[in-house]
Amino acid sequence: MSSIVEAKDERLQVRLNAEAKTVLQRAANYRHKTVSQFVLTTALAEAEKVIRENEAVTMSAADWKVFYDALNNPPAPNAALRKAFAKYQKSAE
Prior knowledge:
With 93 residues, the chain is mostly helical. The protein is built from four helices and no strands.
């Protein structure tokens, strides 16, 4: 999370029961934060984790080698690729 102080003009409202609020308050107290601070920092950390899991590509060492080799030594374009590229160029004019 950014350490730069920014104006906070967005709001998120959450409805919860008393038990859930008590749990959040207890956890926030252990972190010496307000419930809002605790919920925001925890939710942002989880959001960043979910984004990384869904947007980052991970490969085994063997898969990385195949991928890297394909990038550095791509095969020559075949007839279908040349045809598709010509069609793209024509449509981009």
